Amino acid sequence: MSRTLTVTVPDGLAAELDQRVASGAYASRSTAVANGLRELFSREEALDSWLRNEVGPAYDELREDPARALSPEAVRAHIADLHAHATSEA
After folding, report:
1. How far apart are CA 46 and CA 34, in angstroms?
2. Closest to 18 in 3D by CA, of 39, 6, 9, 40
3. Is residue 20 a contact partner of residue 14, using CB atoms and an 8 Å limit?
4. What CDD domains has UniProt attached to this entry (predicted)?
């Protein structure tokens, strides 16, 4: 089942949408918009899941035992190490 909706988008987005349809990347504007909405909803669900399943429990653990928390300096050092490792592999 489908419903017809009327939406207004900025000229630049409309032009990009038309280019992608013309190139064959999408069969129609409707297909492109439906795919975009599916992707948006999927990302929102993934974010909600991450917050619920990882961030929330980690926050609760830190509230129970604040000694487990890292200092800002330790976080910066860890991020710098991750960055150095990632750039050395590139």
Report:
1. 18
2. 9
3. no
4. RHH_NikR_HicB-like
Q: Provide the residue type at 38 as one letter.
A: R
Digit-coded pLDDT (tens) for 9-52: 999 999 999 999 999 999 999 999 999 999 999 999 999 999 99
Which three-class secondary structure string do you get for the chain?
Answer: CCCCCCCCCCHHHHHHHHHHHHHCCCCCHHHHHHHHHHHHHHHHHHHHHHHHHHHHHHHHHHHHCHHHCCCHHHHHHHHHHHHHHHHHHC
The domain ranges of the chain are 11-89
29: exposed, middle or buried (Cβ count in 10 Å: 0-12, 13-18, 19+): middle
For residue 87 the two structure tokens come to 């750039």
